[in-house]
Task: structure prediction
Amino acid sequence: MRKLILVLGNGFTIDLLAHLNPKPNIDLVNLFSKGDTVVWPDGSNEQGFLSYKHCPSLWSLGARPYMQASQATDLIEDIITCANMISCSGFDPQNEDLYTNAYYELVAYLKHLFIQYNSLVPDSHLLSASITEWGWFDLIKRAYDNNEYEKIVIITYNYDIFLERVLRLHNLNFSINGIEPDQGKILILKPHGSISFAHEIIGDVSLFSIRKSRDMYEAALSNFSVNYSNLNDNFLVNALVPPAGDSTRMAYKWASEIRERVQEHISQVKQGDKVIISGLSYWHVDRREIDELLIFLSTKEINTYMVNPNPPRALNAVLTCVLPKHIIYMSSDLLKGVC
Result:
């Protein structure tokens, strides 16, 4: 019996959305470009989450809906780099530390940005032929129906829930490992969290505010359930690690527990299994987490694939160096010949 292991980043969701018709008004490259449209979730229905009113630290650092994608990426990287350093150092930042406060604002903003993005894609679009003919869906469906594969393990660093929605709508049973009982053939692990991770304590929506204390982001995995509705509820803890963040350095208990489960599944990979990697950024501030997986895989004699029309040079070099049976595909259409 074999396993299919998928390691997915932002490029996976970009590919999914590119196959929808009509294409939704979603920007996954410049994460600030739709910031003025995101609703502040206190029940007022006021747009403008990314603003000086609601995110003064982010705004003071230059976050704007009209900034260029490269500028947005650089700013996010600066914020995460500072957050990683503070987390590793063990010292408490100053109460008015601009980058620390911007980090908390970024976490809250990204959660509600992706909740809004989720609302822009109706179920009917995910049930369309454009999805059933999509290379990734075809791959997962064939492995799901093939008795040679005992498990499909999906490690996704995306906190959107488009993948989960596709699987549910097409009756492909799965569970979120660590939060739900392992049921069905598909296990999903989300080391960077998800908009569907619902903390057990829920506050009044009208009292929503961005919590700017590290203690307000700490929780065990057992404190969460999986919720695909009421995403805008005022949950006490947001379980998200922002893009380019490193769950090994942020040291949240829930993230540590998921990371341990990821390592456990990767360590069990054996000859005959297949690993497919797609859409990972491999920025310098998050590559340590990816390297941990690659180190495990480098000791195995397995076939590995990467799907990326424009793979990061550093990641491409590392994969070529440590994985002797490695193939790169430019398009997910080529996955139809993998399983």
Remarks:
- The longest helix spans residues 98-119.
- The chain has a mean pLDDT of 91.
